[in-house]
Amino acid sequence: MFWEEEDSEKSIWHQPVTQMEPNANGAQCIKSIKKPVDYDGRSRLISEIQILKKTKSPFLCEMYECFETPEKVFLVLELLNGGELYSLIKEKGPMKRTQARYYLAQIALGLEYLHESHIMHRDLKSSNVMISRRRDAKIADFGLSKMNFPLGAKTKTFGIGTLDSMAPEMIRKEPYGHEVDYWALGVLAWEMLVGESPFNGKTREATKEKIKNERLEIPMSLSHMSAQFLKGLLTTKVEKRFGIFEIKKSNFFGKIDWEMLKRMEYRPPFNPKLKDDSDISKFDPEITLYENPWKTEDEDSEIMEINKFKEFDHPNGSPEVITLDSEDIEEEGPKIIVLN
């Protein structure tokens, strides 16, 4: 059966995909995306697929397979059923430094890997960080990311990302680089430690002014180490903003062994209380029943795989180039399908 939210943002499907081998790492999910009509939408979708295919890190969402029908593209991903970090923040409220630093360290390592792979994320936020069943943080959603972007490079592409997490140089329409991801990490750190965004304005213009003017009022409840860490990331002076070197040296992380963290040898701070690998209770329960997501109006077959990526045995393999050439389709938000 196929489950879809009323707002068409996410969906859940509970039956295994025909002819698809079960994943040794546990349950999988499928991100179902309506093929975009506009050029920018197609380019971003292709870029997201290429990034997922290229990357392999314990701190990034992993893709196992990719295929398409005439109307949709399906990305087979690992099921990160701990839910969004956003939901965890809303559920738990402000975190203790010992709790927040675990996830922030993992996200920082994910950013380090992306940057070393010449990828800038550009849309890091709590709803784009997922929690695995093991309770680890993984960066997801690379639709706005920029590939082939070496360290030290600058770009002038504006209007990218989410305003609350957007760096001041982007708002000023100045050339920007990987540093914007560390600004976004600072916003995320603030949300985790304080429980709300640091730059909430009554209007978009008010929010932009707050971001550009860097008027941070650090709550007295935060420790000196936390305050210094936030100031290091949320500085409008790009040349003084913390990068990965300063982040790893920050007292905020105490005596954390970064190599141990890479090997996943630390115990995560929260327990999502999931029954098993396929428990989806952390996803939005307001969903409605739909039929098989592969079924089209003109077709009754249970599944149709058009231009399936036959050579795509692993995200680091060599799949065929996906084509997005459908002309008469309506835009539709992405969906999530869960495979047991």
From TrEMBL:
Keywords: ATP-binding, Kinase, Nucleotide-binding, Serine/threonine-protein kinase, Transferase
Chain segments carrying region Disordered: 312-333
Keyword ATP-binding: yes
Record-linked Gene3D superfamilies: Phosphorylase Kinase, domain 1 (3.30.200.20), Transferase(Phosphotransferase) domain 1 (1.10.510.10)
Any GO molecular function: ATP binding
Domain Protein kinase: 1-253
Domain of life: Eukaryota
Short name of one Pfam family: Pkinase
ATP-binding keyword on record: yes
SMART domains noted in UniProt: S_TK_X, S_TKc
SUPFAM superfamilies tied to this protein: Protein kinase-like (PK-like)
Domain AGC-kinase C-terminal: 254-324
Name this polypeptide is given: Protein CBG21090
Species of the source: Caenorhabditis briggsae
Lineage: Eukaryota, Metazoa, Ecdysozoa, Nematoda, Chromadorea
